[in-house]
Amino acid sequence: EGLEVAEDMEIKSESDLIRVRISGSVYFDICREIRRASPSICTSLGCPLCSSIALALTRSIGKPITIEKIEQSEDGETIETYYRIMEEE
User: Fold this and answer.
1) Strands 65-72 and 8-14, how do they pair?
2) Which of 5, 7, 55, 88 has a 20 to 30 Å separation from 81 between CA atoms?
3) pTM for the whole thing?
């Protein structure tokens, strides 16, 4: 809030999986272009928005996070990203 990065953001956590749903982001065009140019980069590193969220989650949880899956709605207005909390060995 206050950064105006997205209109709405929802975070849900279940066990070691975190789902982040973002609507109305100013980064959707960048995400779409990265997905189109290199789907493997999108699913492994994510766009600047998804990777920034992964970094914030890692810092707040204190455990490594990986991007499990990224889905973008047909109209491009919603991104749903699934992050997996990794157990440290």
Assistant:
1) unpaired
2) 88
3) 0.80
